Amino acid sequence: MVDAPEPFRHPALFYSGDAEYLDGVVPFLLEGLERGEPVVVAVPGRNLLLIEKALEHRADDVRLIDLSRAGRNPGAILPSMHALTAGYAGPVRIVGEPVWAGRTDAEYPACVEHEALLNRAFAGRDLAVLCPYDVAALTPSMLADAERTHSELWGLAGPFVSPRFDPDGVRAELSRPLEPPPGALERMFDIAQLASLRGYAEIWAARHGLRRPRRDDFALAIAELTTNSVLYGGGTGTLRLWSAPDEVVGEVTDAGTITDPLAGRIPPPASTLGGRGLLLVNRLADLVRTYWVPGRTTTRVHFSCR
Prior knowledge:
The protein is α/β, with parallel strands linked by helices.
């Protein structure tokens, strides 16, 4: 007996130039519209305009999202995709472009992690997510990572199965310990200090150029992470704060172990108490990076001062 094909599809489109981009994306979108499927486009602003213009009158039938804004933190993309698709029992079609030229060295591993986790998050769902990759602007190593996080590859040679598909492997290889810079402000805490840490983080962020309302968001993110340490990370933790050009960074390390790679990406069942702190942090921050090994978890949040 032959197994039924996996309903979740996650092809990467390798393109060069606007014409190849539209030749790959637009037929994919129109096919979904003709089938009556919900269709979402989440790509950086310039490409969003290209697609909107190419779709002409059908653009009104498509959910258009500027990913350079909504997906600046790659960790926030998957929660948004889950929310967008949760109400549909049938097939859904998405074009998502989380990797583009201009992503920082800190952002890029989070993009690869997002692409790898898509395969786990939507396994078994009748969902197609096409991810364009600009071969003229991205490095060969980035394209190689795309081959490992996508089960199909589309390009001039036509669609074919990726022989290098290994999303868990590439995610593990890119997971590196998060080392704070020398001179980072460090403060150990337990439940006795917990109530004061939110105000402490807000005052520190104000001194380093973060304005309201983002300063309030930063303080809330630190409060969520330190509370998680007390509740789930052994009761104690270490908070580190430092500033970099045009941003402030906070980091919390504790003795907890994250057992679910999708923590902070997929909301827990409504009946579950807790488990939503990392989701909120991903919504608030401009970038979230997490590194864990058994008995130790570090979560780092970046907030832009611009």
